[in-house]
Amino acid sequence: MIKTNICNCIDCEEGWANFKVLTEEELDLLERSRYEANFRPGEMIVKQSSPASNAVFLRSGMAKIYMEGQGQKNLIINIVKPGRMIVGTGIYTDLRHSYSISSIDEVKACFISVEVIRKLFRQNRDFADGIIKEISIMSNFYLHKLLSMTQKKMPGRVAEVLLYLADEVFCSDEFKPLLTRQELADMAGMAKESIVRILKDFSNEGIICSDCPEIKILKKETLEMISENG
């Protein structure tokens, strides 16, 4: 991790939409409370159970949010793209991060004091609404993830992961995942061997092409049906 401070909140082109509701005085307060850091691929940005002293804003690059389980088993619950503020529920409960965040590729991130976030929350109603909306969106996503993990069979979970990457992360039916097969398995909640086998089955059935570093979805309707039916 390399610390830097070359941008400012007022002129930041990647700024979170919720920052636009802040006054110049509030933006100046935000600017004085933050620092910026660069991360290489695979570096830890936030460690699960560490003190939640800062919220994280992703300026560039992508990162994975995951929970660390027993036996060094992880569950990736979200992929975060630039322009997102990551505000965990811990800032209003136990002041601990409930998950870990690590970079997938080269990442620039801003760390903003939780105390400043809480102050702005109290004094700016529109900003508070934005924070609540962000936490609500993430909570709904995690509830859907929980339902999928408990009710869908393995092919359905793999299909859901592929559709999520295509529609929400890369916005294309042909993409280079930037994730290892183990990380794809961590997203689907299964062993690496299982996801390799299912991807091969999908490829043999002509649903996807995964013979090269890229994954190409060939029969999206079929994949959607597998995901829907579990």
Describe the largest sheet.
Answer: 5 strands, antiparallel
What is the rounded Rg?
19 Å
Oligomer: single chain
Any idea what the CATH architecture of the largest domain is? Answer: Sandwich
Q: Give the overall silhouette.
A: elongated
Describe, in short, the structure shown.
The chain is of the alpha+beta class.
Structural summary, described in words:
The structure is a single chain. The chain contains seven helices and twelve strands. The chain has helices spanning 24-32, 114-123, 125-151, 154-169, 181-188, 192-204, 220-229, and strands spanning 2-4, 34-39, 44-46, 54-60, 63-68, 74-80, 85-86, 100-103, 107-113, 174-175, 208-209, 215-217. It has a five-stranded antiparallel β-sheet. Strands 3-8-5-6 form a four-stranded antiparallel β-sheet. A hairpin with a 5-residue loop joins β5 (63-68) and β6 (74-80). α5 crosses α6 (192-204). The chain is elongated.
Descriptive terms for the model:
230 residues; 7 helices; Jelly Rolls; single chain; Arc Repressor Mutant, subunit A; alpha+beta; 4-stranded antiparallel sheet; 2 domains; 5-stranded antiparallel sheet
